[in-house]
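Kindly review this protein for my students:
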Amino acid sequence: MITKKIIAGKYKNMTINLPSLYSTRSTKSIIKESLFNTLQFDVIDEFFVEVFCGSGSIGLEALSRGASHAYFFEKDSKAHVVLRENCRRIAKNETTCIHGDSFKEFPKFINTLKQKAFFYFDPPFSIRDDMQNIYENTFKLIKIVPKELSHMIVIEHMSSQKMPDIIGKHVVKKIKKFGESSLTYYV
């Protein structure tokens, strides 16, 4: 089993199991460090939502750094089993794992959300089979996030992907590139 460690916070050095690299793509540590250098203490006592989460490493890192609760969305059954086990072992009472297609489950979830949150979208890269429209479909999900419920929306994407300056009512704050992957921040 391939593993990663939580970088900082109350769960520092706890091990996160990773699902098969065939079904998911794990976020590189340098990207995770950069993300949390940007978010810093803003996540403390806040909700964190990780969409297309795989192992849940980003949301679990947010919890380790003080987020009050993390919500995870994962479609792949094998990855979801790994996700649930990671959450149960690390932060059982601070996590909610949602199994199913994010494009169907996220709209239901957003209609029930009552508190502001940070949102992290990490869709499968469009170079994979049947993923040609993944970014357009992800942008549609982001458009339904009410501005009053969003502290910030972050998208991990292929660096070659042109990101819109505005998605719904969310405007680009900054873009950070890490070789073939980038993070785009919307506020």
